[in-house]
Automatic annotation (TrEMBL):
Residues 89-114 are annotated as: Disordered. It comes from the Bacteria. Keywords: Membrane, Transmembrane, Transmembrane helix. InterPro entries: DUF6587. The lineage of its organism: Bacteria, Pseudomonadati, Pseudomonadota, Betaproteobacteria, Burkholderiales. The chain crosses the membrane at residues 12-35. It comes from Cupriavidus plantarum. Residues 89-104 have a biased composition (Low complexity). It holds the Pfam family DUF6587. The keyword Transmembrane helix applies. This is Uncharacterized protein.
Length: 114
């Protein structure tokens, strides 16, 4: 009978550490994509635990990066014309009605996704 080796090689140790980290990163990525409100709440709570945006040094830098951006546009229910065109109250007195612009011209604005 051949003896069975029970030692862990460097490759096995590396594989044992890296594969779960990759799976965890993928799971967090999917959760962040499909649970945006939860993601923002978690980021805000982490920023608060670090001392907020006014914390000194590296903690302040990380807290500023984690702090949620100030919401603007249709998601806030504001009355200004932010260009998304989906708010019911999103009308501006200075903007001409669509029929006054002449023809079937439509303005397209590209907005970066958060």
């Amino acid at each position: 009978m051949l003896p069975v080796e029970s030692t862990m090689t460097l490759y096995h140790a590396f594989e044992t550490l890296v594969v779960p980290l990759i799976v965890l990163a993928c799971a967090l990525s999917v959760a962040a994509r499909y649970l945006p409100r939860t993601r923002e709440r978690v980021k805000a709570s982490l920023a608060g635990m670090l001392g907020g945006a006014m914390a000194p040094g590296w903690r302040g830098w990380i807290a500023r990066r984690l702090s949620p951006a100030a919401a603007a546009g249709c998601a806030t229910g504001c009355d200004t014309n932010s260009g998304c065109g989906t708010c019911g109250s999103n009308t501006s007195a200075s903007a001409p009605p669509p029929s006054a612009t002449g023809g079937n011209e439509q303005v397209i604005r590209f907005m970066r996704r958060p």
